[in-house]
Amino acid sequence: xxxxxxxxxxxxxxxxxxxxxxxxxxxxxxxxxxxxxxxxxxxxxxxxxxxxxxxxxxxxxxxxxxxxxxxxxxxxxxxxxxxxxxxxxxxxxxxxxxxxxxxxxxxxxxxxxxxxxxxxxxxxxxxxxxxxxxxxxxxxxxxxxxxxxxxxxxxxxxxxxxxxxxxxxxxxxxxxxxxxxxxxxxxxxxxxxxxxxxxx
Length: 200
Ligand SMILES: Cc1cc2nc3c(=O)[nH]c(=O)nc-3n(C[C@H](O)[C@H](O)[C@H](O)COP(=O)(O)OP(=O)(O)OC[C@H]3O[C@@H](n4cnc5c(N)ncnc54)[C@H](O)[C@@H]3O)c2cc1C
Description:
Number of helices: 6
CATH class: Alpha Beta
Oligomer: single chain
Bound molecules: flavin-adenine dinucleotide
Number of domains: 1
C-alpha cells in the first residue's frame, strides 16, 4: 500500500468489536463523535458468536434433556427420545444471526462505522485495515482503543495437538452428541461444557 496516503481521521478508532468496544462505539458515536470499529470476523466479538451465548444454547438444551429424563416423576411418559445435535446447532446459528442483525442495527442507529477487516498498526495510532477482498484502508483516531480480546489455543502439552482436540469454538458446533467427552481444564469454560447434562 502507498504509505504516503493520508489516513482517514476519526475521533475514536477501535480495534476489535467485543463487549467493551461496541458499547464505547455506540455511546460515543451516539454523542456525535466520528467512530470506526475494525473487526476481522465476529460482529460483536466472541460473546454473541462463539462464547457466552452459544454455550448457553447448549446448556438450555441440556436443561430440556434433563427435564425429559425426569418426565415420569412429573407424570409424563415419554417412551424414547434422542438429541439431534445438528438441530441444536441450527438453533444456535439462528440465535447468533439474530444477534448479529441486532448489532448491525445498533451500529447503523448510532452512526458508528463497522469496518470488517483484519487490523494491524503501522504507525503511532495508525491502523492498516485489510478488507476481505484484499483492499486496504489506513485509519487513525484522536483516541485509539485496542479491544482484541483473547482466543483459545492448543497448549504445548505432549500429545495434545496430535489428539486433534476441539476448542470451545468447535465444541459449540458439534453435529452429533460425542460418545465420550474429556474436558481438559477446569476453568469456567471447561466447567460449563462439562456439566451440561446433554452428554450424560
Ligand atoms: C464458552 C464461553 C462462555 C462464556 N460465558 C460467559 C458468560 O456467561 N458471561 C460472561 O460475562 N463472559 C463469558 N465468557 C467470556 C466472554 O466471552 C469474554 O469475556 C468476552 O467475550 C471478552 O470480550 P472482549 O471484548 O475482551 O474480547 P472478544 O469478545 O474476544 O472481542 C475481541 C474481538 O477482536 C477481534 N480482533 C482481534 N484481533 C483483531 C485484529 N487484528 N483485527 C481485527 N479484529 C480483531 C476478534 O475477532 C474479536 O471479535 C465466556 C467465554 C467462553 C469462551
